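User: Last request for today: this protein with magnesium ion, please.
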Amino acid sequence: MKMINVLGATGSIGTQTVDVVLHHPESFRIVSMSFGNNIEKGRELVRACQPEFVSVAKKKDADLLKLEFPNIQWSYGEEGLLEAAVYDKGNVLVNAVMGSIGLQPTLAAIEVGKTICLANKETLVTAGHLVMEQAKKHNVPIVPVDSEHSAILQALQGENRDRVERLWITASGGSFRDRTRQELEGVTIEDALHHPNWSMGAKITIDSATMMNKGLEVIEARWLFDMPYENISVLLHKESIVHSLVEYVDTSFMAQLGTPDMRAVIQYALSYPDRLPLIGGERLRLEKIATLNFEKMDFDRYPCLHFAFEAGKIGGTCPTVLNAANEVAVEAFLQGAIPFLQIENVIERMLEEHSVLPSPDLETIQHVDKDTRERVRSLLK
Ligand code: NDP
Ligand code: MG
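Assistant: Here's the final one, the structure of the complex with magnesium ion:
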């Protein structure tokens, strides 16, 4: 029986995690969870999962919910998020919170020896070296909850890692893949939030439209699979059926295919290395799809992907700046404060102005993260 701590339970990954868990009560149980401000959804999840410990964003909500659910321990804020992550009845953390706020809970859960099922990619982007170092030290597996990395993990099963030539990460192209750069001027928030293949949270949907999501995934892959950037490539694949591929030294490729359903990815992470039936999962019928398309990635069309590769290669505090600038710029776009194309301008400027610090410790990363956010906010004022 896996006892699970879930962060970001009310989100797109969080709710699908709950769905998977409730379909397999013989294998999984949620013992603690966190959510932010979506109290209505949170209440529904608490009723369905009966966790022992719950954390929310605000004290007033925690106080209110305590009256409704007196048998549950309630907490709030960043401290509560941390407590939910390390709540001791759990042995697996599903980190599905959005943003680099997920870093400290991940590190804390590693320290107490929990297996980490990581959706929160910003954690690996902002401090991949620290997370992997800690995981190695405590002998804790970091299992990806991202379709591309799950595909790579599956394509690596039973293989000798030294025989890997290249990782190929596929990209759908996001909401604007059929538009030219000129046509991106003046696109609306609603247009950007309309992803052709996947239904996800707002921030990652915008990241997919700018292609920053793929950039974050390249950095994520570098850390998860200990692969140099030179051996990671991105391939446009508009159907999102081939979730990613591994190329081996003998020219063979191993790919993982499936319908675009994150529940399959979440469930694989929870059952890894075993598999369970996906209740309600649609089966892939290739004869219905008939054609799969692949295209070379155009870095001029998607400058954010280029920034991510560069920031990753430079390393040090560069990926922290990339991530923090992106989080604030995307938030500003979602609030209608800046046009779509300004997201990339902000990130480029922050990277240009940054003096890189090599091998940063946690304190340095937190300082650079905070400083970058403040600088972007004052730039956008
Ligand atoms: P959502 O925006 O749908 O959900 C985010 C969750 O985090 C919500 O439960 C939200 O709470 C909570 N949250 C956000 N900010 C805070 C905060 N400051 N304190 C406490 N809780 C907070 O995001 P997704 O589920 O789409 O994505 C989550 C992570 O998974 C991201 O890192 C994303 O990149 C990654 N991911 C997502 C995929 C997807 O298909 N959605 C695929 C692969 C990776 P509330 O809403 O209650 O305020
Ligand atoms: Mg992905």
